[in-house]
Design a protein that fits this description.
about 400 residues, alpha+beta, Aminoglycoside 3'-phosphotransferase, Chain: A, domain 2, 5-stranded antiparallel β-sheet, two-stranded antiparallel ribbon, about 40% helix, globular
């Protein structure tokens, strides 16, 4: 049985008054530590998933017929299955089942993902969440079922790559997608999180630097938990981040993983059909999303020109966001979050993913081991960024 985040949070009352990180994130760290003693994880066989779905849907949609169930490719953090459900009237709907493995490359919460998708679907192209199994009582591990969204993450002929890493869109797709990509990011940051039903989210309102501090403390805790060796660059980046926490002038809902590879589009029309992977969303500083978009690993270099997510040149993206959002990008704050982004990536691939693979607690252990080789890339990024000081 999966460990309940509510139980873990309740068992840590010292985190409730002045938490060093968002309370649910503290519970996620505790859950990750607790699963270490549960042994290896075996990927779900298709027949087992069919049986779990059949029993679940017998209760939730007793007059509907479960059709084809098949595993979806990709996914380093979730096991995903596509299934078809036919109503008594004969109409069919395709859905996606997302289940947590025992250990993932990122530690996230299905309840939070469900809540933010419910908010996002009202104003943005996002998958519609249908059912939630927050504690794994139905599927053995926490799970979320959402409506299937059509589209692709990369054009035909882009080759076999990890989704979003160096994806080349080229023209005319680039021109068709870039405006939508920007407009959707601005729309995310305009969502009214204060009036929304987001019970598992907490807002860092205690002081101006709390948004940055909560993020640093969360990733610091995951690094402490999962690192298999000390890395001086990780320690240097951590101390630099704590010494340079920026104030947040405006709290927004951030996506957390906004980039090419995490949206679907129709290749013929160039229309974005769905924004994906909301699981790292939090209430924080809009600069955090901007810095993630600008990560070199998610961009391309063509004729010596770097394009973030193969869409925008760096300054083009910053000025376009300012114009579309009526916000001013603080370059020091952006630089802080660029350091944070590279440090997070180093932790994700060099600690979290590798630890899950070594413990045999993830269905994608080969991919996670492969991705750990990119630690050198993020080490280089950190050396470059930290050498720029705070005046970047």
């Amino acid at each position: 049985m999966a460990l309940s985040l509510k139980t873990l949070a309740a068992e840590a009352p010292d985190r409730q008054s002045e938490p060093v990180m968002e309370p649910v994130c503290a519970a996620l760290v505790a859950r990750r530590a607790a699963t270490r003693d549960l042994g290896p994880y075996t990927a779900r066989a298709q027949a087992e998933v069919e049986d779990l779905l059949a029993r679940f849907l017998t209760r939730e949609r007793p007059r509907h017929t479960l059709g084809i169930v098949q595993r979806m490719g990709g996914g380093a953090s979730k096991e995903q299955f596509l299934f078809e459900l036919t109503s008594p009237g004969g109409s069919a709907e395709t859905s996606v089942l997302r289940m947590d493995p025992r250990g993932a490359i990122t530690e996230t919460d299905r309840q939070r993902e469900y809540e933010v998708l419910k908010l996002a679907e009202e104003r943005l192209p996002a998958p519609r969440p249908v059912w939630l199994d927050a504690d794994g009582s139905d599927f053995g591990q926490p799970a979320l079922i959402m409506q299937f969204a059509p589209g692709v993450t990369k054009p035909q002929g882009a080759g076999i790559k990890v989704s979003g890493l160096g994806t080349h869109l080229g023209e005319p797709l680039r021109s068709k997608l870039k405006g939508q990509f920007l407009d959707h990011l601005v729309a995310i940051h305009a969502l009214d999180w204060r009036s929304a039903e987001l019970p598992s989210f907490a807002a860092p309102t205690a002081c101006p630097t709390q948004a940055a501090l909560w993020s640093v403390n969360y990733w610091k805790a995951l690094w402490r938990l999962d690192r298999h060796e000390d890395r001086p660059i990780a320690a240097l980046a951590e101390q630099w981040l704590l010494d340079n926490l920026p104030a947040c002038d405006e709290l927004v809902l951030t996506h957390g993983d906004y980039r090419t590879g995490n949206y679907l589009f129709d290749e013929a029309s160039g229309r974005i059909t769905a924004l994906l992977d909301w699981e790292l969303a939090r209430i924080g500083d809009f600069h955090e999303d901007l810095a993630w978009v600008l990560m070199p690993v998610f961009g391309t270099i063509e004729d010596g020109v770097f394009r973030a997510s193969d869409l925008f040149e760096r300054e083009e993206f910053i000025t376009a966001y300012e114009a579309a959002s009526s916000r001013t990008v603080n370059r020091r704050t952006l630089h802080f979050y660029e350091v944070l982004s590279s440090w997070k990536c180093l932790i994700i691939v060099g600690a979290n993913g590798l630890a899950a693979a070594r413990a045999r607690q993830n269905h994608q252990d080969v991919l996670l081991t492969f991705l750990s080789a990119t630690t050198a890339l993020f080490t280089d990024d950190l050396c470059r960024l930290l050498s720029q000081g705070t005046d970047a």
